[in-house]
Amino acid sequence: MKFSKTLICAALLGLGAQAQAAQYLGATGTGVTVADLSSPGLLGFDLDFAQRSQVSLSFAIEAQDLAPGALSFNALVRNLSGLGFEGVSLRLDGARFALPAGSLATDGFQAVAQSGHGVDRLWAKFSEPGLTTEFYIGNPLASVGARDWTLDLSGQQVGDTFRITVAVPEPGTYALMLAGLAAVGFVARRRKPF
């Protein structure tokens, strides 16, 4: 009897100590509450914005993150209602997005009017600022047809860190961002192969 109780306790402790995605090290930013929702093979978090701002979340890479070479990623950005947000942007530092691209969506009160992504960033602009209460990066709600993003960790070592910065920019920031992306696209098209 004692032996079986010991086995049950050991099994429960093993489940509780089950490895999760990259280890969450903390966040910097004001006006945002962060909930780490990561699980094995999935880096996920919930951001609750109380004001226009940005938050940077830091993560350490663990051995199980390197085995597949990539990590699924999603996030829920919420409490946007009444704050007049035009959109959301996300930047990676120390990791990059792998193909295929994931989903970007809102709670349905308005559409994503424009969006884009590169190897280390993504952004979305809403059709009517101020109406959206939630924004989904990837598939945090397990919706049919939505797809998580994938973070490529190739070239990284155990203990390396990476940062994800999510921002709710001031109006007008998107115009500058679109101009920058257009310029990069123009230069890339004009570049001749060696």
TrEMBL record:
Top-level lineage group: Bacteria
Keyword Transmembrane: yes
Keywords: Membrane, Signal, Transmembrane, Transmembrane helix
Alphabetized NCBIfam families for the sequence: PEP_CTERM
Domain Ice-binding protein C-terminal: 167-191
InterPro entries the record matches: Ice-binding_C
Pfam families in alphabetical order: PEP-CTERM
Source organism of the structure: Roseateles asaccharophilus
Signal peptide bounds: 1-21
Residues annotated as transmembrane: 171-188
Protein's recorded name: Putative secreted protein with PEP-CTERM sorting signal
